[in-house]
């Protein structure tokens, strides 16, 4: 039985940038092992499978890395919502909800900076342990002085836990050389396997922050655009009051070191102990095909 798939670039401003995603749109009947094998065959950071029609308004979707199934990821959420909107939905719509392992994730389309941008509202963030700067400096192959001592290293989750690491400048960001043994030691007993390093020193003058994300555990040594971890960063920035008013309204660049420049929009608000996180990006179609 042949099955349709679509390839899109997510958080991209043009084709062959951003983060690649394969979406299998008629995946009902595929076993977990078959989905895992297909994800390994595509070998993108994630592949998604629409496993049925919408139930109670939300489309059931499963997400796989080349190594395993995961409960949530950002660019697969936006990319799959775009594919559903373009190819599966009954008529035009500006909102799509996905039923993921973490729960229902709504995606809406709205004009942002003069462009059509898809926005997802992520799960309410949880904040975990703070870690020693020296431990993460070792993971990233940096001197501890290259981390920003004014801000904590912390674990945050909006569905997929991430270790958030503040750096002093872009030179430190570009100098990262992950020490796999140190990475395994820090992440081994923790749910957080993604490591996000950021600095307020972007390349592009219109952007506010620059980011790199590493996820060796998932067979993703570096990711060009990571919606889940950027959601964790937005929550971190709001909780730490990075801007001085409890809000985060930022343009964030990622993927430049990989030759796949990406742009993500952050929108987060901290009100008391509650933080609301939205992450936006564009989706660019690349290819359609079928699995035979």
Would you summarize the structure shown here?
The chain is of the alpha+beta class.
How would the global form be characterised?
globular
Write the H/E string, N to C. EEHEEEHEEEEHEEHHEEEHEEEE
Q: What is the CATH architecture term of the largest domain?
A: Roll
The total of beta strands comes to: 18
Give the distance, in angstroms, between the N- and C-terminal Cα atoms: 7 Å
Largest sheet: 18 strands, mixed
Domain module count: 2
Q: Could you tell me the mean pLDDT?
A: 96
- Ranges with pLDDT <50 over ≥5 residues? none
Strand content: 35-45%
Find the structural class using helix and strand composition. Answer: alpha+beta
Quick one: CATH superfamily of the largest domain? Answer: Diaminopimelate Epimerase, Chain A, domain 1
> What share of the residues lie within helices?
10-25%
- CA gyration radius, whole angstroms: 18 Å
Task: Please provide a written account of the structure.
The protein has 292 residues and is an alpha+beta fold. It folds into 2 domains: 3-117 and 282-291, Diaminopimelate Epimerase, Chain A, domain 1, CATH 3.10.310; 126-280, Diaminopimelate Epimerase, Chain A, domain 1. The protein contains 6 helices and 18 strands. The chain has helices at 32-42, 74-88, 133-140, 170-174, 180-187, 227-239, and strands spanning 3-10, 19-24, 47-50, 58-64, 69-70, 95-100, 103-112, 115-121, 126-131, 153-157, 162-166, 194-199, 209-215, 220-223, 247-254, 262-271, 274-281, 283-291. It has an 18-stranded mixed β-sheet that branches. Strand 15 and strand 16 (262-271) form a beta hairpin. The radius of gyration is 18 Å and the shape is globular. It starts with a strand and ends with a strand.
């Amino acid at each position: 039985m042949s099955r349709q798939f679509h390839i899109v670039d997510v958080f991209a401003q043009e084709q062959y940038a951003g983060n690649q995603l394969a979406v299998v749109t008629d995946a009902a009947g595929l076993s977990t092992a078959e989905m895992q094998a297909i994800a390994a065959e595509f070998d993108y950071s994630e592949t998604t499978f629409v496993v049925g029609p919408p139930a109670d308004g939300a489309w059931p979707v499963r997400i796989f890395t080349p190594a395993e199934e995961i409960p949530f990821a950002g660019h697969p959420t936006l990319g799959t919502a775009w594919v559903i909107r373009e190819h599966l939905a009954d008529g035009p719509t500006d909102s799509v909800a996905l039923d993921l392992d973490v729960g229902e994730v709504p995606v809406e389309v709205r004009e942002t900076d003069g462009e059509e941008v898809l926005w997802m509202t992520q799960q309410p963030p949880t904040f975990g342990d703070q870690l020693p700067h020296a431990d993460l400096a070792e993971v990233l192959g940096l001197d501890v002085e290259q981390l920003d001592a004014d801000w904590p290293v912390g674990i945050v989750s909006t569905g997929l836990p991430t270790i958030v690491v503040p750096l002093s400048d872009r030179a430190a960001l570009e100098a990262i050389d992950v020490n796999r043994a140190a990475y395994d030691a820090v992440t081994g007993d923790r749910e957080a396997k993604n490591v996000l390093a950021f600095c307020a020193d972007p390349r592009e003058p219109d952007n506010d922050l620059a980011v790199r994300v590493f996820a060796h555990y998932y067979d993703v040594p570096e990711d060009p655009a990571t919606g889940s971890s950027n959601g964790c960063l937005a929550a971190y920035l709001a909780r730490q009051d990075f801007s001085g008013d409890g809000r985060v309204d930022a343009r964030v660049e990622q993927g430049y070191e990989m030759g796949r420049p990406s742009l993500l929009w952050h929108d987060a608000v901290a009100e008391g102990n509650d933080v609301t996180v939205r992450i936006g990006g564009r989706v660019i179609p690349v290819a359609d095909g079928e699995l035979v």
